[in-house]
Specification:
Nucleotidyltransferase, domain 5, ROK family protein, ROK_cs, five-stranded mixed beta sheet, binds zinc ion, ROK
């Protein structure tokens, strides 16, 4: 099947807390969006997805659906093996949903979806070997080698959020300690603020009173807003994030030698608070500094919409590759 820029697909970004759906055209523009809280059971989640598709199909003529899923997928993207925040286990999610809604359905890892969106419509457009690091609740990573998704041998690469930067550091949900995402995600940023507040005379930080009154009010977004206003604890927390992000990118560059690193996710849109400093740390930490070309490091152009736009692009690419869902994506895994 061939597709034109006028053909519309639905992208659905399924995260641990919310589900975002959009009708997207071939230029990566979102024409219509919906959002729902992520239901806790597989049956309720599937019902929610079907309802979002039905509502969007009432308003638009769409050709296919793409799902961006925060979890482990089989290399051919036909099976969701495990998702830490979703109920699916070894589930043939795209085929089952396709049978229910009567449209081709394709699935992809959420960070890979975001990477594809940045490649086709955003900050990765001129990258060759590109790494997309999504700094959100955790850290998602997508790697494009020569413009193709790199999955590794068994479909799980690259789990860069769980590279250890501080031995015996903060415990991580993966079972290890000191993982990169415990210092450079939105959650890690909040933990740094809490540590700094406990260590210092924090009366001069607005975050001290706020977190004492309501600990849940401390979010990555709130810390970013406080840092933008010059709050000293928030600024110090971002300096720490910049340090570890720079070190993490240097480790990654020593392994992959990318030409472009795109910083995406919720914190990607606040990159003015830390990216210059992270770049300096990266340049000083990378092996052979001064005698090798360094990757360009850029913030996202699509912000938190990258996952949903990328999911719609996965559907478009799947349609273009043939009528059998996941065929295009399976090829890149071989
Ligand atoms: Zn970890």
């Amino acid at each position: 099947m061939s597709t034109s820029a006028n053909d519309l697909t639905i992208g659905i970004d399924i995260g641990g807390t919310s589900v975002r759906a959009a009708v997207v055209d071939g230029h990566g523009s979102m024409l219509d969006t919906l959002r729902a809280a992520t239901p806790p059971t597989a049956a309720a989640l599937e019902h929610c997805l079907d309802r979002l598709v039905a509502e969007l199909r009432d308003r638009w003529a769409v050709q296919a659906v793409g799902l961006a899923i925060a979890g482990f997928l089989s290399p051919d993207c036909r099976t969701v093996r495990f998702a830490p925040h979703l109920a699916w286990r070894e589930a043939a999610v795209p085929a089952e949903m396709s049978a229910r809604v009567g449209l081709p359905v394709f699935a992809e890892h959420d960070a890979n979806s975001a990477a594809l969106a940045e490649l086709h419509f955003g900050a990765a457009a001129r990258g060759h070997n590109t790494l997309v690091l999504a700094l959100g609740t955790g850290i998602g990573a997508g790697m494009l080698m020569g413009g193709q998704i790199y999955r590794g041998s068994f479909g799980v690469a690259p789990e860069l959020g769980h590279v250890v930067v501080i031995p015996e550091g903060r415990p991580c949900s993966c079972g290890k300690r000191g993982c990169l995402e415990r210092y450079c995600s939105g959650t890690g940023l909040v933990d740094t603020v809490i540590e700094l507040l406990a260590q210092s005379e924090s009366g001069h930080s607005v975050l001290a009173a706020e977190s004492a009154a309501d600990p849940g009010s401390l979010t990555g977004r709130r810390v970013a807003a406080a840092a933008a206003e010059g709050d000293p604890i928030a600024v110090a927390a971002f300096a720490s994030l910049a340090h570890w992000l720079g070190q993490g990118m240097a480790m990654i560059a020593d392994v992959f030698d990318p030409d472009l690193i795109v910083i995406a996710g919720g914190l990607g849109t606040a990159s003015g608070l830390y990216l210059d400093e992270a770049r300096e740390h990266y340049a000083s930490m990378v092996t052979g500094a001064g005698h090798r070309q360094l990757a360009r490091i850029r913030p996202t152009q699509l912000g938190e919409s990258a996952g949903v736009i990328g999911a719609a692009q996965v559907a478009r690419m799947g349609l273009a590759a043939g009528s059998e869902p996941a065929a295009a994506l399976a090829r890149t895994a071989q």
